[in-house]
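pls design
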């Protein structure tokens, strides 16, 4: 439905978006995820026609819309702030796009009623935006987009001003609605959990460039760059040196198959398990997360590790625990070299690591 081909945008010397290339299928929800300033909004605004592209091409349903003005593109956008007109009723707000298109009055009435029903706001049509809660106002903003039947729905951090509970509910509602309507959707967020919950695929951006594109689980399990690894989920990070093609992690080692040199070894907190042959550390803090316990462990060299463990297996502060990773990821110059379960820890090496 949407093909983005080497889309570029600079502001002076700042490269806001660098040759972005990806496609969005009909019915697919893509999240643009990345830290503040990485270029997410600029990319979305170029797709909407609200920012001019410096280069590249933008195709919607196979048609090049790069040169088309925003109001002539088959896109609709929901912003962080709902941007409803307070002097108009909810119905009039939703009807606005149809009036501009000069649709017959009866058709407008029918379509507005359908759109309000879709977002669960039948019966709210006569209210003013000032008489709505924040969540209801965002639903009206969504109805205003859906009513014009766009080919691509664009959403720029639409729930970020709402409280956490409401945000979660609206995400779920949006996902169900988007599936039902089969609408190609791009959703911008800097919230990793939101992206994981909503997206069919996530596009991770950093400094204007796309770092990796993939389904949430794939990005979580196989981050191809150090940036993605550190941005999606928690990681324990340690600097190491590859010797004889192997990288070491507190006595556990993983084959890297590359020339020796400095590297970064990462392990997920939930990939650490207790083992008699593991590296030893002292528990400095135990945080109760409800379903799991987050345990901070200080290793003998002073490194702090985060370990997620089941609550009934949680140690106490001051206890000594021995940990091994079930999986390690090794990066050099920011790129993935290897990811695998490490070789079993050899007792003599472990002894030297602990002593
Ligand atoms: P946020 O999550 O904070 O909204 P973002 O990932 O959406 O950030 P953008 O707003 O796209 O990032 O900004 C990307 C880069 O382009 C930033 O360095 C920003 O300062 C710069 N930028 C964005 N808009 C303009 C503008 N109108 N003029 C100059 N620089 C801009």
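designed seq:
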């Amino acid at each position: 439905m949407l093909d983005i081909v080497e889309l570029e945008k600079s502001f002076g010397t700042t490269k806001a978006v660098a040759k972005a290339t990806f496609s969005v299928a009909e019915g697919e929800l893509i999240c643009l995820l990345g830290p503040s300033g990485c270029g997410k909004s600029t990319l979305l605004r170029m797709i909407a026609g609200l920012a001019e592209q410096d280069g590249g091409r933008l195709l919607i349903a196979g048609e090049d819309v790069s040169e088309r003005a925003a109001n002539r593109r088959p896109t609709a956008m929901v912003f962080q702030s709902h941007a409803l007109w307070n002097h108009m009723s909810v119905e009039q707000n939703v009807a606005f796009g149809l009036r501009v298109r000069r649709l017959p009055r009866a058709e407008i009435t029918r379509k507005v009623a359908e759109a309000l029903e879709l977002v669960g706001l039948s019966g709210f049509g006569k209210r003013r935006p000032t008489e709505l809660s924040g969540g209801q106002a965002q639903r009206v903003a969504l109805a205003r987009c859906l009513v014009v039947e766009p080919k691509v729905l664009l959403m720029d951090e639409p729930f970020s001003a709402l409280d956490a509970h409401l945000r979660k509910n609206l995400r779920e509602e949006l996902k169900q609605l988007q599936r039902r309507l089969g609408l190609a959707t791009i959703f911008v967020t800097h919230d990793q959990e939101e992206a994981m919950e909503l997206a069919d695929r996530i596009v991770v951006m950093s400094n204007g460039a796309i770092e990796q594109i993939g389904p949430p689980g794939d990005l979580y399990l196989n981050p191809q760059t150090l940036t993605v690894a550190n941005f999606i989920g928690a990681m324990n990070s340690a600097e190491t040196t590859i010797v004889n093609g192997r990288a070491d992690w507190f006595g556990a080692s993983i084959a890297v198959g590359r020339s020796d040199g400095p590297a970064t070894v990462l392990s997920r907190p939930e990939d650490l398990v207790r083992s008699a042959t593991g590296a030893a550390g002292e528990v400095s803090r135990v945080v109760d997360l409800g379903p799991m316990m987050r345990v901070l462990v200080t290793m003998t060299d002073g490194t702090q590790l985060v370990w997620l463990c089941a609550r009934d297996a949680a140690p106490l502060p001051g206890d000594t625990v021995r940990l091994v990773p079930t999986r390690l990821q090794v990066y050099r110059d920011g790129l993935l070299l290897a990811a695998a379960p490490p070789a079993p820890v050899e007792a003599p090496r472990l002894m030297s690591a602990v002593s």
